[in-house]
Write a structure and sequence with these properties.
- The protein contains two helices and 40 strands.
- Among the domains are: 82 residues, no CATH class; 50 residues, no CATH class; 124 residues, Lipocalin (Beta Barrel), CATH 2.40.128.
- The protein is 7% helix and 33% strand.
- The chain has 411 residues and is mostly beta strands.
- The chain starts with a helix and ends with a strand.
- Strands 30, 31, 32, 33, 34, 35, 36, 37, 38, 39 and 40 form an eleven-stranded antiparallel β-sheet that branches.
Length: 411
C-alpha cells in the first residue's frame, strides 16, 4: 500500500509541473506570468514541499526515517514505508523442554516445546529431566534390606549401604553338623562326628555327646543263680530273681560241711577215725603215734632225728661233711667204722653224738612233749604227714630249734 501511495504522489507532482508550464528541462521553474498563490503539499521522504497548482517546490525532501530491518521485514521508512535491503531473518534458539523454537531477536516461535525427557526418580533424587535437569516430585527414598551376617544394611533398589555387616552368630559344631551361623545357616569347618560309647546290655551304641544311638542293645549275658547271688548278668552285674539253694557236701574229718557252689562252710569237723595211727578217711597221721623223722642240714653238719611215740623216745644222730672234715679226724672216724651216708649227692660221716632220749611227759594231744630234764618241744601239724617241732632244749645236740618231721614207716 505504501508503494502505491508513493507512486500516486509522484504522478501528482509531475502533473502539476506540466500544468505550470514547466518543460522539465529547466532546473528551476520559471516564474509564472502571473503570481501563483501556492498551495503546497507536504514534503515527503523523497520530494520537497510542492505547490499543487504550479508545481513549484520549496525546501527539500524530508528523507527517510528508517526503522531497522527486522527478522521478517527489511529496513523500512517509518514515514512512507519504503524498504531497503531485506529482512534479517530469525536467529532461532532451539526448542527446549518448556518452550518452542524461539527467535532470539523477536521472540517469534515455531513449532512446540520438546517436552521433558524424564528420568525416573531414584532413591536420592526426584524425577529429573535428562535434558534440562528440571525436577518433579521428590526422591523415592531407600528401600532398605536389613543388614546380614556378611553384608551391611543395603538398599534393594540402588544397592547403597549403611553401617556394617552384623557378623555371624556361630553355634558350635555338633556331631552331625559343622559350626553353623544361627542367623543365616552359613557353615564353617566340618561336623565333630559322634563319640560312641559301646552298646551295653540295655542300651544301643550311644554317642556320649548328643545321645544319638546306632544299632540295638546287646541284651544281658546271664550267669546262673548261685547260692549267694541270684541270676546275674556277667556284663553289667544286674540281677534277676533270687539266690539258688546251697549244694552241700557233708563235713569230714578234714573239711567242714561246705557248699560246692559257693564254698560257704558250716558246722564242725567230724572226728578222725584212726587205725594204727592213721585216719581211715583222710590218711592223716595221728600225733603221738608212730615214728617221725627230721633231716636237717646246717652248713657242713647233717643231723637225723627220729621221734618214736610208741616207745616214748627220741633218737638223734649227727654227721659231718666228708670233703670238708679235718683229715686226721676223718681218718680216725673211718678207722672206727663210723657210718657214711650220702645225702643230696654229698657224703657225710657219723662223728658221734648219737643218743636216745626218753619222754618224761607227753600231752594228751601229743602237741607238747617234755624231754626229761633237758627241755620241751611244741608240735604243730603242717601237713597230714608232717609236723613242725619247736624245741627249747638244754641238750647241746638239739642245736636247731625248728625242725620239720615227716611220718616214717619201717623205722
Amino acid at each position: 500500500m505504501r508503494k502505491i501511495f508513493v507512486l500516486l504522489l509522484v504522478l501528482s507532482l509531475a502533473f502539476g509541473l506540466y500544468a505550470c508550464g514547466g518543460n522539465g528541462d529547466n532546473k528551476e521553474t520559471e516564474p509564472p506570468t502571473t503570481e501563483c498563490s501556492h498551495t503546497y503539499n507536504e514534503a515527503s521522504c523523497t520530494a520537497p514541499k510542492i505547490c499543487t497548482k504550479c508545481g513549484v517546490t520549496e525546501g527539500s525532501a524530508n528523507g527517510h526515517d528508517w526503522a531497522d530491518a527486522t527478522c521478517t521485514a527489511p529496513k523500512t521508512c517509518k514515514t512512507c514505508n519504503a524498504t531497503e535491503g531485506s529482512a534479517n531473518g530469525h536467529d532461532w534458539a532451539d526448542a527446549t523442554c518448556t518452550a518452542p523454537k524461539t527467535c532470539k531477536t523477536c521472540n517469534a516461535t515455531e513449532g512446540s516445546a520438546d517436552g521433558h525427557d524424564w528420568a525416573d526418580a531414584t532413591c536420592t533424587t526426584p524425577k529429573t529431566c535428562k535434558t534440562c535437569n528440571a525436577t518433579e516430585g521428590s526422591a523415592d527414598g531407600h528401600d532398605w534390606a536389613d543388614a546380614t551376617c556378611t553384608a551391611p544394611k543395603t538398599c534393594k533398589t540402588c544397592n547403597a549401604t549403611e553401617g556394617s555387616a552384623d557378623g555371624h552368630d556361630w553355634a558350635d559344631a555338633t556331631c552331625t553338623a559343622p559350626k553353623t551361623c544361627k542367623t543365616c545357616n552359613a557353615t564353617e569347618g566340618s561336623a565333630d562326628g559322634h563319640d560312641w560309647a559301646d552298646a551295653t546290655c540295655t542300651a544301643p551304641k550311644t554317642c556320649k555327646t548328643c545321645n544319638a544311638t546306632e544299632g540295638s542293645a546287646n541284651g544281658h549275658s546271664w550267669n546262673d543263680a548261685t547260692c549267694t547271688t541270684p541270676e546275674t548278668c556277667g556284663v553289667c552285674g544286674i540281677t534277676n530273681g533270687s539266690v539258688a539253694d546251697h549244694k552241700w557236701k557233708e563235713a569230714t574229718c578234714t573239711t567242714l560241711r561246705i557248699c560246692e557252689s559257693c564254698g560257704t562252710t558250716e558246722g564242725e569237723y567230724l572226728a578222725h577215725s584212726y587205725e594204727n595211727g592213721k585216719c581211715l578217711t583222710c590218711d592223716r597221721r595221728q600225733l603221738g603215734v608212730g615214728k617221725w623223722k627230721s633231716i636237717n642240714l646246717d652248713g657242713n653238719h647233717l643231723s637225723i632225728t627220729i621221734i618214736d611215740f610208741s616207745s616214748g623216745s627220741v633218737f638223734y644222730r649227727g654227721y659231718g661233711r666228708v670233703d670238708t672234715m679235718d683229715p686226721t679226724r676223718l681218718a680216725s672216724l673211718i678207722q672206727s667204722n663210723c657210718e657214711i651216708i650220702t645225702y643230696l649227692g654229698v657224703d657225710y660221716i657219723n662223728y658221734g653224738g648219737d643218743g636216745d632220749y626218753c619222754f618224761s611227759e607227753i600231752s594228751e594231744d601229743a602237741v607238747t612233749v617234755r624231754f626229761g630234764t633237758w627241755g620241751s618241744a611244741t608240735m604243730a601239724r603242717i601237713a597230714p604227714d608232717q609236723i613242725k617241732v619247736t624245741a627249747v632244749m638244754d641238750n647241746p645236740f638239739f642245736v636247731k630249734t625248728d625242725w620239720v618231721f615227716t611220718y616214717e614207716t619201717g623205722l
